[in-house]
């Protein structure tokens, strides 16, 4: 199975289930024009996040890692009229691009982007009574995934779904001796999810436009 074939299948799925979408297509174009790294979720993955938010009947969503706002648009579209999504982004330029993309999608009233180091912002959110959230999507610097998962638990309630992106990393996750911080952080968060008695969790592999990767998902137990 070649990478070209994987991408072709992703294109086929995108055409069927996402199609031509001015807001999403515009978000990608604007992000590329602004020089943002092309590391956002793929179109089928974005639609998966949308469906998971719908299935969860999410009213409050927390996203750690905004980038250009592509995944935020998909998840925010699943919210009810009074639903809200809070997204945390370290890079001010990324946040500026994301805000513009989200506004063009007609979602500015539903989405708030806060700029700063997530580990500095999360305690403030907790102090403000920002939780509990119904869905938490973690897609930021991988070395801090264990810390993000810990905060996701603090800001959750029974039934909250916690999703961690990029957990396969072209198979690097198997390397228990890896010195690469992103791999170490990924392995640690997976071990936390597997051993945490407050959640039930799994991880799934995927191939496609984003290469060989996957997501881990957990649901907070009653």
Can you describe what's shown?
The chain is an alpha/beta fold and 222 residues long. The protein has one domain: Vaccinia Virus protein VP39 (Rossmann fold), CATH 3.40.50. It has 8 helices and 7 strands; from the N terminus they run αααβαβαβαβαβαββ. It has a 7-stranded mixed beta sheet, sandwiched between helices. α5 links the parallel β2 and β3 (111-115). The longest helix is centred in the N-terminal third of the chain and has 15 residues, at 3-17.
Under the CATH scheme, which architecture would be assigned? 3-Layer(aba) Sandwich
Please, what is the average pLDDT? 97
Q: Remind me, CATH topology?
A: Rossmann fold
The total tally of domains equals 1
Overall structural class, as computed from helix and strand content, comes to alpha/beta
- The CATH superfamily turns out to be Vaccinia Virus protein VP39
Gyration radius (Cα, Å) is: 17 Å
What is the count of helical runs? 8
Q: Compute the separation of the termini in Å.
A: 42 Å
Give the helix proportion (percent range).
40-55%
Number of strands: 7
**Outline, from the CA principal axes?**
globular
Low-confidence stretches: none
Main beta sheet: 7 strands, mixed
Order of helices and strands: HHHEHEHEHEHEHEE
Beta-strand percent range: 15-25%
Q: What is the name of the CATH class? A: Alpha Beta
How are the strands ordered across the major sheet?
3-2-1-4-5-7-6
